[in-house]
């Protein structure tokens, strides 16, 4: 399958991040055409395009917009989830640094469609360079009359606030993000009510991922039928894939949904030093790992679900045969334990106890009975936690156990570092421990 | 240090950006760290006064987020990603080398109090592993030696350019950017590198592109 640069098409143009650079390629043309249409027809186009959320869950974007009640006399809000923190996910930050105006133009069009006059872009605080690029783009758009009062002479007015987080993975969960944006601890809210009805300041709110919103100008400009030329019936469109790990050419590859991992691996130059693939993860540590036999599956929402995993963020991490799966999973669980917000017991306690057991395995002191006990604790977290972080935390271990049970059993007497020399996994040569 | 009236005015300016002022609390706490070097009791009290909430409420928020510190960070914050991908691909060795060079450990200041070292979680730059940050600006594709070299150059007061971003300033300056993001540095340095262009380069080389707009869709978009 060929690569299809759309959002990334002009990234080699050094001033694409400026208003002038973006407009050279027709930027803000979609906004002009959108403002001539009825907001509902914009929602229809996005619905017809079949665009699904690129943050990980894959919810149909047009449907989400359609849930916002109309004529309710309440303010509506658009919130962009730019809290990209999922281990393995590295595509929203590059989009914001390379093509911030696509995001800003998408924000304006989406706000018009859902009848919002205030939009927020919540960017994780750890990436100031994404923050300043987006803030700069918003100010340039404001100076050009694309943001502010009576945009392009219409009666549509919009203010955009670029907001920095402060270090909390949980704020990628949309209701936790709302609490954080309201100035509270970022802890998830009970749903329902859903944000479309009672979101930011208890008002109707749409929360979309960066890549989702960056798609919007292209869809409005080129049409729903154009987008449906890419991908599959259930997964239309293109995707900014980011391939990382033990490959020769890690990087960003924009391709239609439905491309296979084998094809992406090929574009990424194959496995480094001709080593063998051990496992790969299609979209963030929160989705189950896959192995060699899954390389020819189309990377779509439906095919990944069929293989017992998820497309997630569409940012495959690739690990070769030098890696200890025990160590990899332990590190992920340490992450979830650290990031658990503490609100609900299964996640808070479950991640704590699993991590303790896993660390014993990593050090070669695992107890054989714990191989099943950890799996059991995972079943007590998944589906019983307040939000998806708990489900995510219960994900890496069962998948790893399915393919690499022997490695966990060996870790009852031999540490991960003795089983696999960590230096062999390093990307730099001549390293010492 | 008492928070000056000028800083309080900036806090009120932040609060005015939002339909409800409390939404500005996270940026306000970044401003406090920029002024104070950490989240101090004076800073907490100033936030509380400006927003009309209790200092206990502000403290509850500030202790939830890992970027807020309760001890002086010093001139530079140094982060090393130790999440699975970066860590196993070399971040662990980078962290060990920096801990030795700085004579410190996780989430603590260096011996000379100039640097703060932290094992950080995924920095959304996995394609550039192993990743280090200096005052939260990217230092991509580091090795133990190159990471220590960055510290040495900073210690000597040399200019160090972020691999995808501006020249390194200091922790206080970055914290100010987090409060007021339009810091005038968008043009400093490059933000797109060869890894971000990997697919685009291949597509151009092999003349691959997205399908054209179908004729019917063009007709559709010109209506209305």
Describe what this molecule looks like in 3D.
In chain A, 41% of the residues lie in helices and 11% in strands. Chain A contains 18 helices and eight strands. In chain A, strand 2 (118-123), helix 7 (128-143) and strand 3 form a beta-alpha-beta unit. The model of chain A has no long low-confidence stretch (mean pLDDT 97). Chain B is an alpha+beta fold. Mean pLDDT of chain B is 95; it is low at 219-224. Classes of the chains: A alpha/beta (433), B alpha+beta (224).
Work out the radius of gyration of chain B: 21 Å
Share in β-strands of chain A? 5-15%
**Structure annotation, total helices of chain A:** 18
Shape of chain A: globular
Give the oligomeric state.
heterodimer
Overall spatial form of chain B = globular
- Across the major sheet of chain A, the strand order is 3-2-1-4
The tally of structural domains of chain A comes to 3
Rg calculated over all Cα atoms of chain A: 22 Å
CATH class membership of the largest domain in chain B = Alpha Beta
CATH homology superfamily name of the largest domain in chain B? Glutaredoxin
CATH topology of the largest domain in chain A: Rossmann fold
The CATH architecture designation of the largest domain in chain B is 3-Layer(aba) Sandwich
The CATH topology label of the largest domain in chain B is Glutaredoxin
The greatest interface between two protein chains, and residues involved on each side, is:
A-B, 111 and 90 residues
Task: Give the low-pLDDT segments of chain B.
Answer: 219-224
Proportion of strand residues of chain B: 5-15%
Helix content of chain A: 40-55%
Give the number of domains of chain B.
Answer: 2
Low-confidence segments of chain A: none
Query: Roughly what is the average pLDDT of chain B, rounded to an integer?
Result: 95
């Amino acid at each position: 399958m060929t690569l299809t640069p759309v959002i990334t098409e002009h990234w080699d143009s050094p001033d694409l991040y400026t208003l002038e650079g973006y407009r050279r390629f027709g930027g803000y043309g979609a906004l002009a055409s959108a403002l001539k249409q009825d907001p509902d027809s914009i929602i229809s186009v996005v619905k017809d395009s079949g665009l699904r959320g690129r943050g990980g869950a894959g919810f149909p974007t047009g449907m989400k917009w359609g849930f916002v009640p109309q004529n309710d006399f309440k303010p509506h809000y658009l919130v962009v989830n730019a809290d990209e923190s999922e281990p393995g996910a590295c595509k929203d930050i590059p989009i914001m640094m390379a093509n911030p105006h696509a995001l800003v133009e998408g924000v304006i069009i989406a706000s018009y469609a859902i009848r919002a006059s205030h939009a927020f872009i919540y960017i994780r605080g750890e990436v100031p360079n994404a923050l300043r690029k987006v803030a700069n783009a918003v100010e340039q758009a404001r100076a050009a009359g694309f943001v502010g009062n009576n945009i392009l002479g219409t009666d549509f007015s919009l203010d955009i606030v670029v907001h920095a987080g402060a270090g909390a993975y949980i704020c990628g969960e949309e209701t936790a993000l709302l609490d954080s944006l309201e100035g509270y601890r970022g802890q998830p809210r009970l749903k329902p009510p859903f944000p479309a009805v009672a979101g930011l300041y208890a008002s109707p709110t749409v929360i979309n991922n960066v890549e989702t919103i960056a798609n919007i100008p292209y869809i409005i400009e080129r049409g729903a039928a154009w987008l449906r030329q890419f991908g599959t019936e259930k997964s239309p469109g293109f995707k900014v894939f980011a391939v990382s790990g033990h490959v020769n050419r890690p990087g960003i590859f924009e391709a239609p949904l439905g491309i296979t991992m084998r094809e992406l691996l090929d574009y990424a130059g194959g496995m480094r030093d001709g080593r063998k693939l051990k496992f790969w993860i299609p979209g963030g540590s929160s989705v189950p790992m896959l192995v060699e036999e899954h390389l020819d599956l189309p990377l779509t929402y439906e095919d990944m679900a069929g293989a017992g995993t998820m497309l997630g963020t569409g940012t495959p991490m690739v690990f070769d045969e030098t890696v200890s799966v025990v160590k990899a999973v332990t590190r992920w669980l340490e992450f979830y334990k650290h990031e658990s917000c503490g609100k609900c017991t299964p996640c808070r306690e479950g991640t704590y106890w699993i991590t303790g057991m896993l660390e014993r395995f990593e050090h070669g002191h695992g107890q054989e009975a714990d191989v099943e006990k950890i799996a059991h604790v995972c079943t007590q977290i998944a589906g019983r936690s307040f939000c998806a972080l708990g489900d995510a935390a219960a994900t890496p271990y069962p998948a790893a156990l399915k393919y690499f049970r022997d490695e966990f059993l060996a870790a009852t007497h031999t540490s991960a570092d003795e089983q696999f020399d960590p230096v062999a996994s390093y990307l730099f040569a001549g390293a010492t421990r | 240090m008492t928070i000056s009236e000028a800083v309080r005015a900036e806090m009120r300016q932040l609060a005015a950006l939002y339909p409800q002022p409390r939404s500005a609390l996270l940026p306000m706490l970044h401003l406090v760290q920029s002024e104070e070097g950490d989240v101090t009791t004076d800073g907490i009290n100033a936030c509380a006064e400006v927003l009309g909430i209790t200092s206990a409420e502000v403290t509850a928020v500030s202790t939830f987020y890992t970027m807020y510190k309760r001890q002086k960070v010093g001139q530079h914050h140094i982060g090393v990603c130790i999440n699975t991908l970066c860590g196993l691909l070399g971040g662990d060795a980078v962290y060990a080398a920096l801990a030795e060079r700085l004579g410190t450990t996780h989430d603590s200041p260096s011996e000379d109090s100039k640097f703060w070292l932290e094992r950080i979680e995924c920095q959304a730059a996995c394609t550039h592993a192993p990743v280090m940050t200096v005052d939260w600006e990217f230092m991509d594709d580091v090795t133990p030696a190159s990471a220590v070299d960055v510290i040495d150059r900073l210690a000597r007061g040399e200019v160090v350019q972020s691999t995808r971003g501006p020249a390194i300033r200091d922790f206080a300056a970055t914290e100010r950017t987090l409060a007021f993001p339009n810091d005038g540095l968008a043009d400093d340095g490059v933000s797109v590198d060869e890894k971000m262009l990997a697919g685009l380069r291949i597509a151009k080389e092999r003349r691959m592109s997205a399908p054209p707009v179908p004729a019917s869709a063009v007709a559709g978009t010109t209506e209305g």
